[in-house]
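Bit of a strange request maybe. I'm writing a small parser for structure token strings and I need a real example to test against, not something I typed by hand. Could someone generate the tokens for this chain?
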Amino acid sequence: MKRSNVLLVGCVMSGLQLFAGETIIPLQDVLLFQNGAELHHRVAMPIREGENTLVLQGISPAADFSTLQITLSSGNTLAGHAYTIRETKDEEIARQWKQLRTDSARLSSDYKIIEQSLVILEKGLQQNIATSTNGKNTSDGISSTIKYYQQHAKELRGQLYAKETALADCKEQMNELRRKEQEMQQTNSLRTGVLTLYINALKEGSAQIDVKYFSYAGWWTMQYDAHITKIGAPITLSGKAVIQQTTGIDWEDVEIRLSSVSPSKGMTAPEPTPIVIRRYQPQPRPMMIAYSKSAAINDMLSGSAISEESAVEEAAVPFAGKEYTIGRGYTIKGNGEKQSIPLDEMTLNNVQYECYTLPQKDQRVYLTAHIGDINKKALLPGNVSVIYNNTYYGDQYMATNRTDNDMVLTLGEEQNVLIKREKTEDYTTQKQTQKDAQRTFTYQITLQNNAAEERNIVLEEVYPTSANNQISVTLSDKTTPADTLDKEKGVLRYDITLRPQETKTVTIGYTIKYPKDWTINL
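Reply from user aminoacidic:
Good idea to test on real output. This should exercise your parser:
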């Protein structure tokens, strides 16, 4: 195809190097996903009747070419297009490189001159000493020569040290500049995308060109601040979007929309595969041969490693998606810098505060806030920063897309409530006439409230459960009756109220019965 009408249209934009016949296509708006972004550019350009070749700059070098969509105004037909990536230069970095190379060359030259001067001075001293040994110089003359050498040698060595230090500093600046260039290359700051369009126009006039494409170099995450003023008060939850992008172009004063949907290339629906359950019969393996993780996986896939007991994780609930329009007025740099943008704020009234402890794992008492019906708020998952009485207490993840409709925030340690867990019994009973052995454990848990106010405490303790009918676990008569008992999970829950300075004890005891020739995991 003949390419005769090349339009010489251009403009000046910082960071881009325009050649004759090129123009910048401005960024119009961005639809930002949590794992990518759709960028939309638009420009209106004069065209001639017939064939036109337009070269557009300002496209992201991180664009996915396969997703490129080009739309022209009525009366114009796209005959073809080409997308290339051009390496660019940062003028300020180029200036710094030139200056550093000049300084390095000058310092190296000065260093060599001083070094040569020191060599000449040493040779002169040696000649004077040699002459004096032949009787041509007096002792006073030799002393004067040595003194002269020492003085000037000291000056020259000082100059050498100064030049050496300056060279080292120059080298460090070069290394820093090199690191900066590498960072800019990683964020696509030293590259630009160039789009060449071949357009057939029915008549001379103006053509509006819209270009859309997807890039994985942009993303956002949801974060929250949970503000709590006092125990018993509602929680104010403030949401904010943390945006980052390394597309190589700045999103300056463009309309930005945020979507919780995560587009995926090559997405396919799953197909059912047979699950065959067999009895697990471990095979003896030779000593000194490593059993790799891949071998274990292969055993599982073949059905030979299905255990009697398996843990079932709670399934995630698919999220339909949510979209925010944050409009214009923001500049999101293309170098990966984080930009935080406030979104919505809400008050959570369905909150229950309580102290919680699980002394079997951690002998501390925590102040917690239980937020009910959290899924009804249509919140996105994200990290939550807990701020209690204007003090930051830490972060935790809020998984709002799970089947559990409640969320628990840990506000910190309740240091006014002391807890101690100690083992009071651990003995084994085994008789020769019996085929089974028994082992008994007893623990005593003591709680003390040193606060000036009453404290409601939830104490949970876990006792063993069995997945084998030849192993039985029985709670002893010494066990303090629990408010709630989950026999399947082996969890006892105690709802305890402690008045100021009050102390209470809870006893947990259980007996494990198993074949006496077995070894169990205790």
